Amino acid sequence: xxxxxxxxxxxxxQTGEGTRIIYEDEQVVAFxxxxxxxxxxLLVIPRVHVGDATDLNKSHxxxxxxxxxxxxxxxxxxxxxxxxxxxxxxxxxxITVHHLHLHVLAPVSSMSLFSRFLFPSSAPWFKxxxxxxxxxxxx
Length: 139
Description:
The chain is an alpha+beta fold. It has 4 helices and 6 strands; from the N terminus they run αβββαββαβα. It has a 6-stranded antiparallel beta sheet.
């Protein structure tokens, strides 16, 4: 990996090693998280580099909505119910890769106590898509 290169950008460009892309379109790429916090733990990332959810503004509304649609479609593909899943974005300081990524975890009932802490239904460090859309609508 070249110095300063974003690991998720490398996945988008398919220059990284070992990551199997399970979905891609013109806007996003999806793959399994390398450190799963649930039996199904996917990441949906934009092809264009956006640092994290704090960098989002109104111009990103359709991107975030599309990421959420893809997350729902992937849950269907993996035969998981959206009502038993957790979908959301981490906010600083709980970010290990500074490239916007939507976590898709299912089922929540199989997550450890620690994972439920890291990926709660709502907290200052983890927000659902509706929470993020409301936040960017007011910025």
